Amino acid sequence: MTVKYDTVLGDLRESDEYTGAGGIVDITYENLLTAIGASGLVSGQLYRITDYATVHWMVDGDDSYILDEEAKIVHTGETEPLVVLATSANTLSQDAYSATYPEDTIKYDWDITNWESLKPFYDGDTSETVTGFKGVIYRREDNINNNRCNFDFREITYRLWSIEQASWVAQAYNEGDFVQHGGNDNIYVALKAVADTAQVEIVTLTGTSGTANITGVGGLTKLVTFGDDLPDTAADFVTSFAADYLAVDIVITNVGGTIVFTANVAGTGFTQPAIANASGDLAGTVANSVLNFAVTEAPDTRADYWKLLITLSDFDSAYLSFSSTGLGVGDYTIPVLDTDDYFDRKMFGDSCTNNLFDEYFVSLPYTIFGSSCDSNTFGTGCGHNTFGADCEGNTFGTDCSTNTFGADCEGNTFGTDCGLNTFGSGCSVNTFRADCDSNTFGSYCAYNTFGSGCSANTFGSYCAYNTFGSGCSVNTFGTSCGGNTFGTDCDGNTFGTSCFNNTLPDSSYLNEFKNDVSSLDCSAFDTVEDTNVTHQISNGGNVYQTYIDDDSTPTLVITTETIGISS
């Protein structure tokens, strides 16, 4: 019995009809190169490359070489003899057959000059080929599990680095510092310098006569009496009561017709003042200027100082990064603190089936699947993605790269160029149009529809049933924010937890809705102040807004008038 090579099916089949040169010739890769160079192959002859193994340098996700004592690390896979067919005296068919994995469909190229753009095989800076190179398997299809990839997923090996951070302690931090805190192993980044901060409250006086009581601050109640004008009234109050307030560690000053209350000890807060008319029409409004902050306040209590980047328990392990520099999450990179804390693994976890990569993908995708990840489809150029367990039925357009998914992320659809997104566990059935990138999603963000150009957003847990128009970027949402609808170009917004049923029209931006604000509708912006509103802040049940008054000299106005807000 002889053997026939079927180039259509891409495997060897037993047959009595083989009419080539006869048999299979064993040859080493080195001798194969010599024969090709000398045009010494026999057309139609089958050759078994007896010493074939996938050999590559280990490369980070940022395409830098992983070094050990300054030397590039070479990974050599298991020896897997490949049978190939000579199509002329110096050419081979692209189809190959593996006796180790006889059900696999394999495409193989012996020629390094076709792969000089891939750093795992060739260093363009030094014109050096990886030691032990024996060709490239550039398409491999596991026809039992129906996993189809454009590289040797059975042997290409990745290094994953631990991104665990130092535990948070009650101390000062610099902007950009990373800490780990909470039972769920949450990793936070400091949005600004973390230091004890003195609270500042501002009472802006109004009226032309009479008296008013200021209560609450330091447990004191003090009477404001109208003088010659509002600045004189504020100055008289400071002169009369500065010592009383200092005795309870509060410093009072005045700026024009305002009275400013400042904590004498940074990090030690006080009750926000209230002002109530006693006689005449003297009254006022109250606004927080600087929130009290103490370094003893944990990251999960102060979203204005700390940003939650990722929850490690959402993922299969803390080993998530393909880069020794860290894991990119939105605009931040969580650093690798210990380059000795890593492990190496191949593409698929246990029980992964029906994952399909575009057939003409031409570089290594650097994609990792947890166990039981099934039926994901990738367009061209989708690489550097990480999936937790049980991620199924996701579809990616072209160039969707560097996404990180927790467990149980299913049924998501991505347009082209959707990359650098981070998803917690259970983020399913979301639809992304093109160019949605650099977003961070907490757990259980599901059934959302995002228009084109939605990028650099951060979504907390349980943000469901939201609809976003195109161009919505740099938004931050707290947990449990559901049922929001945003028009186009609404960016730079910050929403605290429990912000429900918000509707923002075109060009509504620079809003900052803190906790307990609900049912906001900004469609009634005054035409003069439409784009001048800088912040809308909830504090003690009231909504304070700041906007720029351009009637004369540009002035920052703090008001409790609900501009553009339906109560």
Q: Biggest sheet, in brief?
A: 9 strands, parallel
Q: Tell me the span between the first and last alpha carbons.
A: 87 Å
**Strands ordered across the widest β-sheet:** 31-33-35-37-39-41-43-45-47
Q: How many discrete structural domains?
A: 4
Range of strand content: 25-35%
Residue-averaged pLDDT: 84
Q: pLDDT under 50 segments (min length 5)?
A: 1-21, 505-510, 514-532, 538-543, 552-556, 560-567
Give the overall silhouette.
Answer: elongated
Strand count:
51
Rg from Cα: 32 Å
Helix segment count?
A: 2
How does the helix and strand content classify structurally?
mainly beta
Measured as a percent range, the helix fraction is: under 10%
Quick recap of the structure?
The protein is mostly beta strands and 567 residues long. The chain is built from two helices and 51 strands. The chain folds into four domains: 2-156, no CATH class; 200-290, no CATH class; 346-429, 3 Solenoid (UDP N-Acetylglucosamine Acyltransferase, domain 1), CATH 2.160.10; 432-567, no CATH class.
